Amino acid sequence: MNRRLWLIVILTCLLTVLLTNLPFLPGPAILNYPAQLFFSLGMLAGILGFLLIPIGLVWTVWTFIKHPEPRLFKAFAILCWALPATALVSTTWLANHTRDISRNLAMTNASVLIEQVEKHYHEQGAYPETLEELTIPQPSSWVIGIPAYDYSKTDHAYTLSFTQNVILGFNFEVVVYDPSGSHKAEGELTTLYDTGLDNWKYYVYD
Fold it and tell me: Which domain of life is it from (predicted)?
């Protein structure tokens, strides 16, 4: 393996990390669909490819012993186990951290919307039925995987929420702002988690 082949391996793994974490990175929501696709495919490839890691390791050892000179298929042999391992770590452990960052960014960017809802309440004496009643367009979360905020008027006040993919689109994180403090988790998992910001909590929907 020479420097060029190692560079191919490293850049391929870094590109995998970038693509599989796209839903949690700052950017326009127009990239949401491909970002979710990359994340889900990366997780699926990581889970299924995990079974091939021993084969890839054996092939890597064999190629290095059999062919000591630099060859392109050595890089392929390494990628056979490095890519699934990278995808699995990226979509599980690393995604947990990038999801925290995107959650905080989306909550911060929702402050303008919350201010407008509260302004409507003080001026009209009631919370709006829908966001279309506000005088400003809905602000962007500026997170690729969070295309919009969901608003719902409740008996006590209102809720503002958004979701993030957790496992292949079947499990997802629901982040809810409720000024009345009447947060409630839906689905089989009932644990509510603090976000560090007032009136914001989240849970994982299963």
Answer: Bacteria
**Whole-number pLDDT of residue 61:** 67
Q: Could you tell me if 180 and 156 are in contact, meaning their C-beta atoms sit under 8 angstroms apart? A: yes
Which pTM does this prediction carry? Answer: 0.86
One-letter identity of residue 92: T
Using a 10 angstrom Cβ sphere, with 0-12 exposed, 13-18 middle and 19 or more buried, the burial of residue 160 is buried
Q: Which two tokens stand for residue 106?
A: 């989306």
Confidence of residue 73 (pLDDT cuts 50, 70, 90): low
* Cβ–Cβ under 8 Å, residues 21 and 41: no
Q: Which residues 6+ apart lie within 8 Å of 199 measured at CB? A: 177, 178, 179, 181
Question: Rounded to 5 degrees, what angle do the CA atoms 153, 154, 155 make?
Answer: 135
Average pLDDT, the chain: 89
Spans of all domains in the chain: 3-96, 108-205
